[in-house]
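Exam revision sheet. Question 4 asks you to relate a sequence to its structure. Input first:
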Amino acid sequence: MRVLVTGGAKELGRAFAEVLGAQGHELVITGRDEKALDAAETELKAKGVDVRTHVADLADPHATPKLIESLGHLDVLVNNGALGGPVGPTWEVDEDDWWRTFEVNLRGTATAMNAAIRTMTSGRIINVVSNAGVHRWPYVTAYSVSKAAVIKLTENVAVELKRRPIAVLSYDPGMVDVGLMHRGCDESAQDPELRKIAQWARTQRAQGRFTPVEQSAGLLARIVSGEFDHRSGGLVTPSDG
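Answer key, structure tokens:
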């Protein structure tokens, strides 16, 4: 299958790409960092993965849709790219930074999803979300609220697609020791809000509540295979693995 993974050159997205490539899927991965994309392409091809990379910033509402339209055929879209957003009391953080998080996490996801739906005859769209979209995550409200919006977007679009063979699912990969959560455990944080988040994240890790990256990527691969299509509109979490 041809699978597009946004934000697929780094961190959890890279782990997703590794597993999907190993399963023989034809990969297209995007991101903002051209050097990271080039490195990912070289390393994945060295492992025999059929992969292409393209620079596409999710903050640009036209970039990913243009790429999807140019592909001609797409079986699966993994909407993985996202911003962590500003940290601090909502009334104190930079409002432009707060809203930019929505431009990437919500609008970027929506525009890519819409382009994929217009292109697909069948397949699936997987919107990577977070526990932050289900439960409150104070001091990171832009991230939390944007992910909650993506979960609701997924639920609504799934109903609109019920007469078409396209599944739309939200996927919470769990708290993984890479990317946002790994940075959240940083003990050197000076800002008091960042220290609170770091203390909480380290407690979660110490209590064994993190999901191994391999397990998270493995469950994503099962969703890509179509195992959860019957739950279109729903949220898949590590407990389903």
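Marking note for examiners. Helices lie at 11-22, 34-46, 63-71, 95-119, 141-160, 180-184, 192-206, 213-225.
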